[in-house]
Amino acid sequence: MEKQHYHSPFGWIEITVTDDAVTALTLVPEHNHTAHSSHKVIIQCCKELDEYFARKRRQFDVKVSFQGTDFQNKIWKKLQEIPYGKTISYAVLAESAGHPKAYRAAGSANGKNPIAIIVPCHRVIASDGSLGGYAYGLEMKKALLNLEK
Question: Which residue of the set 79, 116, 121, 145 is catalytic?
Fold first, then answer.
């Protein structure tokens, strides 16, 4: 596993990768001044994040690898199907994963998404149209949704 820090408009993001995939994208309060990585997945991830924040990328191509329960993995894969600039409710997320009554569990899995931004958990909102929660705060969720408008 290798890690690299990336400076985003929202602060520092720690990118964690295996040989061939991103396993985590986590906002961190500060970072260690590490040298830039020559790891191909980190380079691709940073390039795609640059394009996303510049509004030039709507979908990520970098490979991701999930490490969760079967239910979490199913939810996280469904998150990747939410189109750029669109939102769905926790209930719709649960239904799309084949568990229509498990909207609270889907919300919990959504909140534990280890690959923020690339796996767009910020695109899931409450059924009443309110933002719901977000691991990195509602201001960031609102900003990501505004970026995609």
Answer: 121
